[in-house]
């Protein structure tokens, strides 16, 4: 099959750090152009809007959307209406309803919609899922604590409504938990800490359960300096699993487990190519639904102003 001709939209940190190298290394894709208001991809035609890119580069068959989630719907709709396959960065949108609308549009147009969750492609995730299918989890503890000033310098959109605040990284943990658990979980209670001068939370403490009474405790915090934590600890009857570094490392009862070495973004693009080639979509909204539930059920606590 010939390479899928691709356009990339929103050339910022993640597009530059991860998408461009993963696309360049994957023979199933050929990057034709970019659309971004202030940035271009060296050596390729650059446009300032997706509409202009699609009009000027009609050979484009698929787009990767890497802008902030509040601005993804219009771009995705334009691409789907033009008959293009769409790869969306996480989180797939600002609301559940708009992503469902896109899912239906993709189905009606017969094109692929991929709502990606990069953390699900970390090497430990499928290993843990297979283990938990045999040994039911008894307790899950998620610790996702990082320094927002280090990882999101100058990004104002994450503090605006729809930017999700600490759920921007926290949703990565939720994407892993929803992938590995054998049963569906749901929120029981939560506390969301909002800086008084911001529209998005800087920390969240969430308690989930499932039909069998499983205890899932998630702690998200953006004020962590020093050691950063992207860990999940799962107690089972067959031992304790400790996942660290967002899924790059795994121990069972302190014995390091051997993991594959494919990176998250190479794996994401391999999956996207297979979806396009097989005429399928992949739109799982469960991580975003848990975040929406947290905003709906969680108590709101005002904390000190945040200045970057
Ligand atoms: P970013 O550095 O701010 O880049 C996003 C780009 O989107 C901007 O550079 C901007 O480029 C474009 N954009 C279009 N409309 C925009 C608007 N109204 N406001 C701001 N930017 C706009 O953000 P990012 O870190 O790459 O994150 C983008 C998406 O990727 C988010 O959904 C995020 O959750 C996800 N993600 C990020 C990371 C990470 O480590 N940073 C990791 C995984 C996933 P122009 O100004 O040129 O239009």
Automatic annotation (TrEMBL):
Keyword Oxidoreductase listed? The answer is: yes
- UniProt cross-references to InterPro entries, sorted A to Z: Gfo/Idh/MocA-like_OxRdtase_N, Gfo/Idh/MocA_oxidrdct_glycsds, NAD(P)-bd_dom_sf
Q: Which domain of life does this protein belong to?
A: Bacteria
EC main class here is oxidoreductase
Ranges in a coiled coil: none
- Tell me the organism's taxonomic lineage: Bacteria, Pseudomonadati, Pseudomonadota, Betaproteobacteria, Burkholderiales
Protein name as annotated: D-galactose 1-dehydrogenase
One Gene Ontology term of the molecular function aspect: galactose 1-dehydrogenase activity
Q: What is its EC number?
A: 1.1.1.48
Protein keywords:
Oxidoreductase
**Cross-referenced Pfam families, in alphabetical order?**
GFO_IDH_MocA
Q: Report if keyword Oxidoreductase is assigned.
A: yes
What region holds the Gfo/Idh/MocA-like oxidoreductase N-terminal domain? 4-114
